[in-house]
Amino acid sequence: MPRPTDRREPLYRSVNTRTHGVRHGQGGEYRHTRHARDADADATHASMHGRQRHGRDYTPLFRFLLSKVGRAWDEVFAEAKARLDTTEPVFLLVARTDAERRGIVRVGESSYFSGLYVDARGVLCLVDPGLDARDMQPDCACCTHTFNGVRFGSPS
């Protein structure tokens, strides 16, 4: 009798990248740089295999990390690593050095999350534990802003 697998859901979601008009920071169009005569003209003739990975929403990862505050970092990172395609998004929230620590981390256009770090005991901690969505002010009135998944600012 086959055993059920203990496969957990990945900590990312696929984002629609095929919809007409969806652009993901790919830069300008070729027609604007076609006749450029500067030193950067070679950049337009580089490989078409870019380094950006589009089509991933790591909001589930960020919520997972926030739910694990106060736990041993080695265990949290091992579980996250097993459920991700790459470990780079983990370090968008988790500071590797003291200089990288930020109370608020902007992820995307109008989504913000609490910054995290690993203390000397190896425990995952919040950089600014007193920070709340009520303390946040939106940059503009046209967008929906969130802090740790909680909407803040006045609705449009």
Task: Provide tags for this entry.
single chain, 3 helices, 156 residues, 15% helix, 9 strands, three-stranded mixed β-sheet, alpha/beta
Write down how many β-strands occur, each being a DSSP E stretch of 2 or more residues. 9
Low-confidence stretches are: 1-5
Number of helices: 3
Output mean pLDDT.
Answer: 81
Rg measurement, Å: 20 Å
Helical amount:
10-25%
Arrangement of strands in the largest sheet: 4-5-8-9
Quick overview:
The protein is of the alpha/beta class. It has helices spanning 59-67, 73-82, 90-93; strands at 13-14, 56-57, 94-95, 104-107, 111-114, 116-118, 124-126, 145-147, 150-152. It is built from three helices and nine strands; from the N terminus they run E-E-H-H-H-E-E-E-E-E-E-E.
How would you characterize the overall build of this protein?
The model is unreliable at 1-5 (pLDDT under 50). Helix content is 15%, strand content 17%. It has a domain at 58-129. It is an alpha/beta fold. The strands form 3 sheets. Strands 4-5-8-9 form a 4-stranded mixed beta sheet, with no helix packed on it. It has a 3-stranded mixed beta sheet with strand order 3-6-7. It is built from 3 helices and 9 strands; from the N terminus they run E-E-H-H-H-E-E-E-E-E-E-E.
